[in-house]
């Protein structure tokens, strides 16, 4: 296993885990405007990176493919919708003191992805994985019954990112090209929204607040950096290691929500999270077993 790859991917998840700290700095700005700027400056920053890495020729080739491939274009459009929804819900949740809800959502997300793979890609789901998904569903159900409301923030985050990952898997584009083209579809809407806000003096962008302006521009950078780190790290480490590392981010968010932002953590949250953690442990155990079976099979084949 490549130690450098593990470290790079780990820092990507640590970066994602601490993102609430960044968005909290913009708690005086409405979520819609933060989202608009995140889209705009992500597009600008990634375009700059592509130009610096001489990636224009590859980008042109991809665009030519899109013109003749309606299915890929549709998948990219869907990716754009799902990631925009995910970004908005996440920003809204953080700035409405629901960091714990984001943590719960990203603990559930891998289990959602397994279910989506089973439904849409006909991927095999083992009995153990089915049990893990069932335990997670019980946790969500317990929360819903106890509070009398569905944990929509957590579910929207898990479902939107799950469907985003599904469409990404089907398009198979590089990290930079994927992010650029996904933001391309929604950047005109973001520009129109921000233009309207500026005209009607509802914007926090320059010259209203220099601090908010710099933070809004930086939103594009903090979006792209962890994606690049993850992409680089994921190329050299096995999938099971990514499966373990992905729980770094929601764990950091969980700790931030309780110990830094003092969000309420009652017996209901304790039971809900405990059920989700049990599901995660069961899920990871099943992954390790599958990997071990594959390794043993390869060893037998090599000996023969």
Descriptive account of the structure:
The chain is mostly helical and 304 residues long. It has one domain. The chain contains 13 helices and no strands. The longest helix has 37 residues. The model has no long low-confidence stretch (mean pLDDT 89).
Overview features:
304 residues; mainly alpha; 13 helices; globular; transport; EamA_dom; RarD; EmrE-like; transmembrane helix
**Which range best describes the helical content: under 10%, 10-25%, 25-40%, 40-55%, 55-70% or over 70%?**
over 70%
Number of domains: 1
The stretches of 5 or more residues where confidence is low (pLDDT under 50) are none
Tally of contiguous helical segments: 13
Reading the helices and strands in chain order gives HHHHHHHHHHHHH
- Range of strand content: under 5%
Average of pLDDT: 89
- Work out the radius of gyration: 20 Å
Overall outline: globular
**Largest sheet features:** none
**Count of extended strands:** 0
Secondary structure class reads mainly alpha
> How far apart lie the N and C ends?
25 Å
InterPro entries: EamA_dom (IPR000620), EmrE-like (IPR037185), RarD (IPR004626)
Membrane topology: Multi-pass membrane protein
Organism: Bacillus carboniphilus
Protein name: EamA family transporter RarD
Question: Would you summarize the structure shown here?
Answer:
With 304 residues, the chain is mainly alpha-helical. The protein is built from 13 helices and no strands. The longest helix has 37 residues, at 267-303.
